[in-house]
Each structure stands twice: as structure tokens, then as C-alpha cells.
Amino acid sequence: MSRARERLAAVRRGAETLPSPNIWHWPDVYEIENRAQDVHDDIWRVLTTIADWRGRDVLDIGCGSGFHLPRFAATARRVIGVEPHEPLVRLAQDRVTLLPTIEVLTGSAQRLPLPDASVDVAHARTAYFFGPGCEQGLAEAERVLRPGGVLVVVDLDVRHRPYGDWMRADLPKYDPVEVDRFFERMGFDCRTVETRWRFADRTSLESVLRIEFSSRVADRAAREVPGLEFPVGYRLLTRRKPTGLIT
Q1: How far apart are CA 2 and CA 213, in angstroms?
Q2: How far apart are CA 87 and CA 108, in angstroms?
Q3: In principle, which of 40, 50, 88, 153 could form an S-S bond with 129, CB 3.0–4.6 Å?
Q4: Which candidate, 93, 67, 81, places its Cα nearest to that of 123?
Q5: How far apart are CA 95 and CA 27, in angstroms?
Q6: How many whole angstroms separate alpha carbon 87 and alpha carbon 104?
Q7: Do residues 236 and 193 make contact, with C-beta atoms less than 8 angstroms apart?
Q8: What single string gives the DSSP state of each residue in 125-158?
Q9: Residue 164, φ and ψ in degrees, nearest 5
Q10: 162: helix, coil or strand?
Q11: Residue 153 DSSP one-character state
């Protein structure tokens, strides 16, 4: 089973802890993947226009090993990372040990270890919020957001080539129209962003493909990328909590 298929299956069956086999089993390779992504900061530029976190409190849901936490902390008042997998919690805590405005907590998207109305921005990148089945996590994000706060879900765009082609090859039953309709019903706006992934060498590139896809699709992807980089599309889904409403 591909890594993407395993994550989606867990969401659909309502698993309390959503497995991320790529980073759970290969955190060192996933670190390479994080460094390779969005080399021109296209996602970050759009994020700052839809969820200004300067001087505010930020929650990163499914923060993994904490790769994005220091980036938020550069301008945020406080940053909280929440991650269900204990080995990754420890890696994230080690990463931010000298950054006093960052805290890393153990918890899941469905049971965030935060008080009501305690953050201004909730960010989730390729973690948990994959469409139908994530309603409990959406309700939790709404609970911890302050009035006027925003939830931003950053997910891969399966319509964007070539990465989307590889994802669909591993997820033949994934219906992007169904997912789009789900987030529309839930009140989200969507913006698409094209980025580039760039690697230092072929070994790094191919090792990342092999933790993301089945062997068959990873082999195909490696053949279709002649160099060290390729374009990848993302969807930035945003929903703002109404001002004056505390749930």
C-alpha cells in the first residue's frame, strides 16, 4: 500500500491517530523532502496574505519533527506544535530547544491539547485534513481558534502534473471533485499554488520518491524526472472563524 493510500484510509475509518508512514519510518529522508519543497517560498508568500501571524499565536497541527515551527516563530508571538507520534515530538522539541516562544505538545488533530479560543492561526500541512472523515479535526480547530482566527490546510494538488499523476496512480479511487465539494460545504476558500521541489542529488530525489509512493510508481516517477527538480502543485484551503463567535 502506498503511503498516501494508508493515510487516506485511516482518515476515512476515523482513526484516532493518523499514521504518516513516510515521516514516521524515515524521518531523516523526510527532512530531505522538507528542505527540497517550495524552494522559491511560493507557499509562504501566499500564506502571509491569507493568515498574517505577526505578533499572534500559531498552532501547527501534525507538526512532525517541527520543520516549520521556527519559520512561524520568526514573527509570531507564540507557536505551538502538536504531533501524535512520540518519536517525532522528541525530534521537534530538540529542534526548538533554544527557541523559547515555541512549545511542542503530544496530541492529535481530533483532540488538541489546547484551551478554547487560544490561537489566531491554525496551520496543517499535508496532515490529517484530506477530505471526508476529518470532521472531528475541523471541529477541534474551530474550538481552539479565537474569533476572527483562520485555519489553513496546505495539501497537495492531485490535478497538477507530474506529482499529481503519480498520486492518482497510487490512489485510483481518490475523487478530487468529492474532496472539493466537501471543503466547499465546510466553508473553505481554495487557492492553488505551483511550487518547485529541488534536490541536491539524484540519490536524495529518488529516496524521497520511495517514501512517498509504491515501488512501481516511485520507479515511474524517477524515470520521468531527468534532473534534480520538478513542479508540484498545492491547494491552500482557508476558513476563518466568525468574529464574536466562541464555540
Answers
A1: 5
A2: 14
A3: 153
A4: 81
A5: 13
A6: 12
A7: yes
A8: ESSS--STT-HHHHHHHHHHEEEEEEEEEEEE-T
A9: -60, -35
A10: coil
A11: E
Q: What is the pLDDT of residue 247?
A: 45
CA angle 84, 233, 242 (to 5 degrees): 60
Q: Give alpha helix (H) positions in the chain.
A: 3-12, 21-25, 27-36, 42-50, 69-73, 86-95, 135-144, 163-170, 176-185, 202-212, 215-224
The span from the CA of 219 to the CA of 235, in Å, is 26
Whole-angstrom distance, CA of residue 25 vs CA of residue 39: 24
Q: Encode burial over 18-56: b for 16+ CB neighbours within 10 A, e otherwise.
A: bbbbbbeebbebbebbbebbbeeeebeebbeeebebeeb
pLDDT, block means (10 residues), the chain with 247 residues:
50 61 95 98 97 97 98 98 98 98 97 98 96 96 98 97 97 94 97 98 98 97 97 98 69
The DSSP-derived string for 44-56 is HHHHHHH---TTS
Distances (CA, A) of 57 to 116, 131, 150, 165: 13, 26, 11, 37
H helix or E strand, kind and range, residue 53: none
Tell me which residue has cell 498516501: 4
Task: Name the amino acid, one letter, at 78.
Answer: R
pLDDT, position 20: 86
pLDDT of residue 1: 46
Bridge partners, 153 (sequence order) = 124, 237
C-alpha–C-alpha distance, residues 102 and 85, integer Å: 18
Query: Grid coordinates 525530534 are at which residue?
Result: 91
Quick one: which of 229, 148, 225, 163 has its CA closest to 193?
163
